[in-house]
Amino acid sequence: MLVSRLLEYVGLEPGRFEMRWISASEGGKVAETVREMTERIRKLGPNRKMRDER
C-alpha cells in the first residue's frame, strides 16, 4: 500500500504497478502474470502523469 502511494506521488498511475509473490518454480504463473500486466498497461496507453506539462 505504501509503495503504491509513493509511486503515485512521483507520477506513476496506480494501474501500472502490481506486486505478487510468485516462486521461481511457478513458471506458468509468472508467464500468465506478465501477459496480464502487459495487456493492462497497453490498454492504459502512455503514462500521462510522467509527461512534461510545458
Descriptive report:
The protein is mostly helical and 54 residues long. The chain has one domain (2-46). The protein has helices spanning 2-9, 27-44. The longest helix has 18 residues, at 27-44. The radius of gyration is 14 Å and the shape is flat. The model has no long low-confidence stretch (mean pLDDT 85).
Brief summary:
The protein contains 2 helices and no strands. The protein has 54 residues and is mostly helical.
Distance between the termini: 31 Å
Structural class by sheet pairing and helices: mainly alpha
Residues in helix, %: 40-55%
Mean pLDDT: 85
Query: Major sheet: size, sense and barrel closure?
Result: none
Which stretches are poorly predicted, pLDDT < 50 over at least 5 residues? none
Q: How many DSSP E strands? A: 0
Count of discrete structural domains: 1
Radius of gyration: 14 Å
- Quick one: overall form? flat
> Strand portion, in percent?
under 5%
Helical stretch tally: 2
Q: What is the ordering of alpha helices and beta strands?
A: HH
Keywords:
mainly alpha; 54 residues
How is this fold's topology laid out?
Layout: H1 2-9, H2 27-44
